[in-house]
Amino acid sequence: MTSKEVMTWLPKVTENYVLERVRAGEDLEAARKKVEEQSAEFAPGGQPAPGHHFLWQVDGDEIVGAVWLGAPNPRAKATWHVYFVVVDASFQGRGYGRAAMQAAEVFVKERGGAYLGLNVFGHNDVARALYDSLGYQTMETTMRKVLA
After folding, report:
1. Taking the CA of residue 147 as centre, how many other CA atoms within 13 Å lie in the half-sphere pointing to its CB?
2. What is the SS3 string spanning 67-88?
3. Is 87 part of a structural domain of the chain?
4. What's the chain look like in SS3?
5. Is residue 58 part of a domain?
6. Residue 51, domain member (yes or no)
7. Using an 8 Å Cβ cutoff, are 100 and 56 in contact?
8. How many independent structural domains does the chain possess?
9. Is 127 inside any structural domain?
10. What does the alpha-carbon distance between residue 67 and residue 84 come to, in Å, rounded to a whole number?
11. CATH number of the domain that 108 lies in?
């Protein structure tokens, strides 16, 4: 993505991320604060931090989605992270999410990465099934119960 495209795209996906955090049970204010903190670290000023890559997913001349990848951190040099995989609603259910993840794996391997990690919300059954089918393994599970 160009710098201008990142600045247009990023607010849309980060707002969706806020809503997903709320759907997962987080308070709206806390979700916004967490997303603002993460955005400031990984995309300061709306631009990728060093080692972060914002990539369009295209089919022919049409943009069908996007992927945000982060390069390794100093403590885990071979492990990259998927921050977002977004497929436009009108293209969902056609294999573009799978193709995006497979392309991300190639991108990371070509840059010396040995592992690709991601987080997925427990309520996102479709994404979880995709990641399972691609061979991703659950590393940890965080659970909570709302007490009335």
Report:
1. 1
2. EEEECCECCECCEEEEEEEEEC
3. yes
4. CCHHHHHHHHHHHHHHHHHHHHHCCCCHHHHHHHHHHHHHHHCHHHCCCCCEEEEEEEECCEEEEEEEEECCECCECCEEEEEEEEECHHHCCCCHHHHHHHHHHHHHHHCCCCEEEECCCCCCHHHHHHHHHCCCCCCCCCCCCCCC
5. yes
6. yes
7. no
8. 1
9. yes
10. 6
11. 3.40.630.30
CA-closest candidate to residue 80, choices 57, 53, 62: 53
> Which of these, 1, 19, 21, 17, lies nearest to 9 by C-alpha position?
1
- Predicted TM-score of the model (pTM): 0.86
- Domain containing 106 equals 3-133
User: In this predicted model, what pLDDT tens digit does every residue of 34-93 receive, in sequence order?
Assistant: 999 999 998 999 899 988 999 999 999 999 999 999 986 767 778 999 999 999 999 999
CA–CA separation, 115 vs 61, rounded Å?
Answer: 31
Q: How far apart are CA 61 and CA 111, in angstroms?
A: 26
Mean pLDDT score of the chain: 91
